[in-house]
Amino acid sequence: MSHTLDDAALTPFHKRLALLSSGGPFLDGYILSIIGVAMIQLTPDLGLTTNEQGLVSAVALIGIFFGAFLGGWLTDRFGRHLLFTIDLVALVACSVAQAFVNDVWWLIGLRLLIGIAVGADYPIATSLLAEFTPRRWRGKLLGAYVCMWFVGAAAAYVAGQFLLTVDGGWRWMLASAALPGLVIILLRMGTPESPRWLAKRGRTDEANAVLTKVYGPGVTVADLGEETGRNVGVGAMLRSGYGKRMAFITLFWTCSIIPLFAVYAFGPAILEALDLGGDLAHIGSAVITVLFLVGCVVAVFLVDRIGRRRLILHSFGWSAVALVGLGLATGASPWLIMALFAAYAVLIGGTQILQWVYPNELFPTEIRGSAVGLASSLSRIGAAVGTYLVPLALTGLGIGTTMLIGGAVTLAGLLVSLAWAPETRGMTLAESAALTNTTSPVRGSLRVTTVKGRHS
């Protein structure tokens, strides 16, 4: 089997595609963060009740839940190229419409649609990126995709603070997501369809045309190194053996983001509960946010050096230690508490980037988008429940117990990964997605991987 494209050099095309694909998480971070600043002016202007404030803040997450699965199903059915642009057109239109609302329910409806558009972009963009990227760079580029969420969040806070000085600035804040969205749409125009998807749909001539355009004359579908087989539905694929992989991805993803969403969303409240109140809580929360980004960047450099399996095990293991330490360190030195928070923020980065690496590598082309979308949607359930329960736990159980529960959830992720996490470093997409892969820990090593009689 030819591996010409899997072993290709990284080109400006790949770098451009990676940048354009990362527009989704950038907009996600921007949209979910800007609302927090906008609520300062929005609440009195529209006379929102406490329940309405909660709905306005959370409804985009509900939209992402539905959008991720819908986008995955649509991109497997109709292709990556068309939806790569259409979803952001909807986002831009709804963002602009927010500036003109005078009723809270119109605002809630628009933010639900925006969440659907953002959620849909995740499986669309990552599938397209994974199917073009050479195996040597796939882990890095898919991992770097996550980093843009924090860049978007930072941009939102800067824009929000500036617009707070403007009368009715909340309208401009909510509409401002349209500007980067429009830029991304214009830059995405002309992005070719995935030749792997075209080949799977029997559109060989179109696939060859894309390959010639991107890689030059003489490159054909024979160089894709893709497994052969007929297109089947998601249900049939899961019953044929991919259900275990979906369970692994959903469980580790959920165990990773429940504590992270809690720490990120309630950072100031948690720090105040740990006797780090006032300005120190807000400064500490900002520093921790930056360290989440640092952790993801570090993980991007490690994912191909130490491999996927070792990275996820170390990330879960040491993050659990940091959270348990926080649970036991209530009343300790502020510097120790900040150090443990910082350690957690950096160490959890490995599990964060693998949320997009593993789903794209462990499923075949015909259901890759659906698998990524389904895993993203299912994990959001746990994140929403966890985020909802954090303030209740802080009040009813106390900060120490709350942090220990977070540590227990993280340890559960470690156990799931010990049992099921495969090593896919250095594999082609055909190899990593094949059900003939087997992965098991062995003495003296974290894993051994066998692919059709080959060890790595």
Automatic annotation (TrEMBL):
CDD domains: MFS_SV2_like. InterPro entries: MFS_dom, MFS_sugar_transport-like, MFS_trans_sf, Sugar_transporter_CS. The chain crosses the membrane at residues 17-42, 54-75, 82-101, 107-130, 142-164, 170-191, 247-271, 283-304, 311-329, 335-358, 370-390, 396-421. The keyword Electron transport does not apply. Residues 17-425 form the Major facilitator superfamily (MFS) profile domain. It comes from the Bacteria. Keywords: Membrane, Transmembrane, Transmembrane helix, Transport. It is found in: Cell membrane. It is a multi-pass membrane protein. It holds the Pfam family Sugar_tr. Gene3D superfamilies: MFS general substrate transporter like domains. This is MFS transporter. It comes from Paractinoplanes ovalisporus. The lineage of its organism: Bacteria, Bacillati, Actinomycetota, Actinomycetes, Micromonosporales.
